[in-house]
Amino acid sequence: MAAEPVKSLFLISGSTREGSINTAVLKTATATLASHWTASIYAGLTHLPHFNPDLEQSGPPSSVADLRAAIRTSEALLFCTPEYAGAMPGALKNLLEWTIGDTVMSGKPVGWINPSTAPQRAAATYESLRTVLAYTGAAIIEDACLNIPVGRSLISDTGTVEDPTTRERIHTAVHTLTSPIN
Length: 182
Ligand SMILES: Cc1cc2nc3c(=O)[nH]c(=O)nc-3n(C[C@H](O)[C@H](O)[C@H](O)COP(=O)(O)O)c2cc1C
Known about the structure:
It is a single chain. With 182 residues, the chain is α/β, with parallel strands linked by helices. 34% of the residues lie in helices and 18% in strands. The longest helix has 15 residues, at 164-178. The relative contact order is 0.19. Flavin mononucleotide (FMN) binds at residues 15, 17, 20-22, 82-86, 116, 118, 122.
């Protein structure tokens, strides 16, 4: 039997913080992928220039071209972001703005994990993420958009979530997003 072709999941954290809970959730997500999937967590958020359509005139900046290429060549995207001051981090909104004038996200299956433990669970941020993703043409996979509260105490020294129940819930989100893709 032929081996299944390798698929790629691109993961985007809205946090640029060392020791980020959101990034820890994404690291954990990569560990739950089926063997024919590879994963890459975006590491360039702090290096993207502020969105400016004028910068497209002579071709996009290399960091933007790299971001778009990573999205284009992935089969699915998984987001995980904190809320700051009632909204998504500016750095994440900036990233999304760079994808709008391009078709890289069009039809791309997208899910998210909201790890907030706050009472309102960063609701405004994920509503806004939904709105902005609609402009990109991404295909939001509703069942792969989950609230999975992750307190700081659940993050291990290796920067992943070790709590079995929470890992299982993260696995469910990843599986729901990736398993229909063949
Ligand atoms: C300046 C500041 C503003 C924040 N505003 C909110 C907020 O509006 N809503 C919320 O749920 N959490 C808010 N938080 C909490 C962060 O979302 C929380 O610390 C989160 O874990 C940060 O994500 P990270 O660990 O991935 O960096 C805020 C934190 C800071 C430092």
